[in-house]
Amino acid sequence: MTDSVTRPRARGADKRRRLTAAAAKVLHEQGVERTTLADIARAAGVPVGNVYYYFKTKDELVQAALGEHTAHLDELTARLDRLPDPRDRLKGLVEAWMGGRDVAARYGCPTGTLAAELDKRGDGVLDVEAGRVIRRLLDWAERQFRLLGLPDAERLAVTLVAAYQGMSLLANALRDPEIMTGEGTRLIRWLDTLPTPPQK
């Protein structure tokens, strides 16, 4: 394949990536209803006419943004999976949430706020897609609790993720990043108190 063919493809893939990343950021900051394709094009540094080449509708951009959320989650959990101890992985997850406290205080949880907004539309498509991203996080957390040998790993995963959604919501509503810090510290202490089953 010649450079004259591969360069335009690479540029096209780069534009699509920039638009997807911009969609995730702008939709998080402004919400679906307030965001226009022009807002996303501006954030991506792409002419607005080019947006329609890659995404025909705003819903397609929302779907791409959800894909971006999934990719970020997978990247984070892959990094955490390198830690040998599942408890440390869970604590690392909480520390990552605490690290995003300023963004959470300003805009809330990226996936949680998007899921709540999309649910109001009730179209049974994008709201379900947003739920899948949250389910992916729950499944990962549940695996960690199972690896620790703890009973009712599913309930523990729900407790952890629900705590994150709650602290993100409060931090955002009150514009107080210290809620993320305080509640995150409490979650880490809670994880430390969970029993370690005896070795077989």
From TrEMBL:
Domain HTH tetR-type residues, every copy: 13-73
UniProt keyword Hydrolase, yes or no: no
Residue ranges: DNA binding: 36-55
Keywords, comma-separated and alphabetical: DNA-binding, Transcription, Transcription regulation
Protein's UniProt keywords contain Transcription: yes
SUPFAM superfamilies named in the record: Homeodomain-like, Tetracyclin repressor-like, C-terminal domain
Domain of life: Bacteria
GO MF terms held by the record: DNA binding
Name of the protein: TetR family transcriptional regulator
UniProt organism field: Actinomadura physcomitrii
